Amino acid sequence: MAAFIIKRLIQSIFVMLAVSLLAFALFRFVGDPVAVMVGQETSVEDQERLREQLGLNDPVVVQYTRFVGSLVRGDFGFSYRTRQPIGEMILERMPATLELGIVSLLISLSVGIPAGIYTALRNDGVLANAILVVTLVGVSIPTFVIGIFLIYLFGVQLGWLPTFGRGDVVEIGWWKTNFLSLGGLRALILPAITLGVYQLTLTMRMVRSEMQDVMNTDFIKFAIARGIDYRTVHYRHALRNSMVPVITIIGLQFGGIIAFSIVTESVFQWPGMGLLFLDSIRYVDIPVMSVYLVIIALIFVIINLTVDILYFIIDPRVRLKAEGS
């Protein structure tokens, strides 16, 4: 197992280097950060002096090496626009995004897995077909449209839930949480549902597909022929075997929720990392954009590494393949 983990770690390091190079190269040509930092009345000499202080006149290789070295040391630099350390800005916004992502993932799993099991076992039922139609509509509608509809229905027409911001939060050290206040929980409902709807449909269809494939295998037919009751066959044998590939999807879903929460955070003005990224694009804040992409890539790498290890533990076929290679 140690060799397997070391191999995955080496692959992860190369992935992070590639992402850091991509982030550095992309945002180097987005715009002139000096023009954002200074006013129009600033002289050309002062602009050049500032450019020299920021190291923007150094060769590209030197700038990239300095960029990667700073990331490895945990020094993310400072924002060109606010002059704040980027690490502090990310830590301030991270709790909002992580809590939104966790609740959205729980919604997608708590609804998607039972719905996937039901539609797989009641394949020709009216309710199962209705669920499939509804999920097809849900996955076809853009996320921002779902968010606007929920705002209009539950915020404007009914007035039940807040439509923007985090509401009341409770501070636990540097972490600001929505979970410990009623206002924070109410503010979390609409954006979490909006972000979880798309993931819910993916979860349901994956569970349904895997469950149907397992139900058609020989060992399930043999278990039924032996007279084992259907509940045991369905939930002890079929479900357990069908959930193995779903673990990968669940891990990638959480990473996707974190990475693609930008639209939802923009619609609900949710003060998370996605909204910070949008603000940095608006003001050509290149360091913030670059660090955001690297952090999102790191989250994906950590999740994939965790999923690979779980796969190695759960599925004996992966262990045999790893040992054979």
Compact summary:
This protein is mostly helical and 325 residues long.
Which key terms come to mind for this protein?
325 residues; mainly alpha; MetI-like fold; 2 domains; two-stranded antiparallel ribbon; 14 helices; 2 strands
Describe the structure.
This protein has helices at residues 2-27, 33-37, 44-54, 60-72, 86-121, 126-140, 143-157, 182-215, 218-225, 230-259, 262-267, 273-282, 286-314, 316-324, and strands at residues 170-172, 175-177. The chain has two domains: 1-81 and 283-325, no CATH class; 90-271, MetI-like (MetI-like fold), CATH 1.10.3720. Strand 1 (170-172) and strand 2 form a beta hairpin. It has a two-stranded antiparallel sheet. The chain is globular. With 325 residues, the protein is mainly alpha-helical. It is built from 14 helices and two strands, in the order H-H-H-H-H-H-H-E-E-H-H-H-H-H-H-H. The two termini are 12 Å apart. Helix 12 (273-282) packs antiparallel against helix 13. The longest helix is centred in the N-terminal third of the chain and has 36 residues, at 86-121.
Order of helices and strands: HHHHHHHEEHHHHHHH
Q: Any guess at the CATH architecture of the largest domain?
A: Orthogonal Bundle
Shape: globular
Structural class: mainly alpha
Rounded average pLDDT: 82
Strand content range: under 5%
Poorly predicted tracts of residues: none
The spatial strand order of the largest sheet comes to 1-2
Radius of gyration (CA) equals 24 Å
Return the CATH topology of the largest domain: MetI-like fold
- Name of the CATH superfamily of the largest domain: MetI-like
**Biggest beta sheet attributes:** 2 strands, antiparallel
Q: Separation of termini?
A: 12 Å
